[in-house]
Recover the amino acids of this structure.
């Protein structure tokens, strides 16, 4: 199989082989080494990228901006109110206009079908910066962080706790299956991963000699785990009225000291961020006031512990996104 990704879109990890993901991880490591050593890598000088964000972002936007600038590219950021897309101009028309001016387009928004339509019409690589269904660039950062920590991926036991139907859970199930990591989704029955995705991921995992499990039993899931992962309980685009129901369903699925004690002694904690681990955010304060809970999906104790590698993970967003842009544009 060819490992040439030039001109390819990056819409979801299902579209990529294990070898292609390996190639992107290795490329990310090279870019990380160069950045750390201060070696310039303006390989894409003269090119330009557009970053469309219909939802808010800190990490993804900054990773694309800094990554593109390190590669020598120009960057245009379009916020939810900054373009005509969807309001006065169709996705297809926007794609055809931007494709005439830019060499690559990043899109964060709601439906996966939107980023797919952009890709269909743009004529240049389109990168998914998060949709309701998938968050593929986050996957590369997560895999890189795990591999950097343990030195390998295959055979590790990975547990995702929380809302197992969201973009992160869908993506992590596929990412682990592709790379031979044993994956367990630990969530109440009401918030379990879509059966179709479980089926697809299970088939992929068999090819890579790993497993995909789904359970609502915390103890069973986390005992001996190498990686414990969680995400916020209410995702972007969901109404805030849903918090009460989510807290009721997920309070027993919080990552806390008890969970980490049951995991392997050397286990690490990961989170895509942002996280509600304290009351230093307005949302965190509102929840603390209404529900009397400080620390939702993860306690502050775990978040701030030595086992927590969340800031290594956040940094890796930039190195991995740089690799995606380079591989598809060079
Ligand atoms: N993890 C992640 O995608 O963060 P942002 O929402 O800040 O981009
Ligand atoms: N599930 C979260 C991920 C944030 C990076 C959301 O979509 O808001």
């Amino acid at each position: 199989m060819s490992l040439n990704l030039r001109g390819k879109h990056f819409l979801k990890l299902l579209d990529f082989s294990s070898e292609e993901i390996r190639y992107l991880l290795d490329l990310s490591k090279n870019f990380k080494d160069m950045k750390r050593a201060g070696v310039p890598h303006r390989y894409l000088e003269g090119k330009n990228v557009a970053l469309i964000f219909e939802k808010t972002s800190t990490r993804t936007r900054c990773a694309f901006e800094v990554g593109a600038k390190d590669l020598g590219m120009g960057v245009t950021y379009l916020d939810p109110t900054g373009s005509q897309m969807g309001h006065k101009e169709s996705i297809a028309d926007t794609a055809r206009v931007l494709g005439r001016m830019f060499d690559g387009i990043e899109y964060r928004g709601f439906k996966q079908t939107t980023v797919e339509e952009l890709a269909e019409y743009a004529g240049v690589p389109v990168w998914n910066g998060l949709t309701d269904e998938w968050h593929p660039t986050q996957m590369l950062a997560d895999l890189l962080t795990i591999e950097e920590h343990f030195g390998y991926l295959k055979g590790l036991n990975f547990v995702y706790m929380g809302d197992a139907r969201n973009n992160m859970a869908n993506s992590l199930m596929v990412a682990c299956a592709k790379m031979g990591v044993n994956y367990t989704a630990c969530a109440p029955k009401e918030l379990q991963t879509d059966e179709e995705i479980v089926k697809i991921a299970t088939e992929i995992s068999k090819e890579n000699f790993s497993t995909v499990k789904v359970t609502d039993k915390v103890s069973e899931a986390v005992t001996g785990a190498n990686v414990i992962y969680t995400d916020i309980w209410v995702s972007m685009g969901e109404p805030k009225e849903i918090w009460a129901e989510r807290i009721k369903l997920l309070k027993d699925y919080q990552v806390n000291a008890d969970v980490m004690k049951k995991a392997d002694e050397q286990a690490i904690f990961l989170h895509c961020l942002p996280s509600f681990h304290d009351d230093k955010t307005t949302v965190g304060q509102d929840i603390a006031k209404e529900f009397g809970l400080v620390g939702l999906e993860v306690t502050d104790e775990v978040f701030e512990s030595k086992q927590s590698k969340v800031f290594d993970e956040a940094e890796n967003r930039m190195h991995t996104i740089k690799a995606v842009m380079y591989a598809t544009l060079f």
User: Anything to note?
Assistant: The first helix runs from residue 18 to 37. The chain has a mean pLDDT of 97.
